[in-house]
Amino acid sequence: MFGWVSAAYATYVKDGFGYDNVFGTWVSELQNTSPLAGIQPSKNLNPFNASLYPNPAPNYQTVHINFTLESPEMLNFYITDIQGKEVKNLLTDNALPGENTFSFVTNPLSPGTYIIYATGSGKIIMQKKFVVE
112 in a domain, yes or no? Predict the structure, then answer.
């Protein structure tokens, strides 16, 4: 038996100029002895496909990405701005075969256009443009 937890957090970090807000998100699997954990699997097997919603997303909104894998894969999810500069590394973890859902919160992102990538086996397997309002 296992369960999934996802959350957003904020903290203050003292730097040389004062305090900065630090925001982040995380996803975790609980009570599972499987070495493949971190992204929620289901049983429906389809060719690789991905959808992202809502898009556009209001700030402080949870965005969901549904995707399908045919085999287990170590995935890295990260966000770049429209110029290609990485702004946030969201998660690196194993995903199981089948339909999966990955969620993240837009709150550390300023309004604008971004691209989220999923990479695995040394290649980009998903690239989706989204807008934060």
Answer: yes
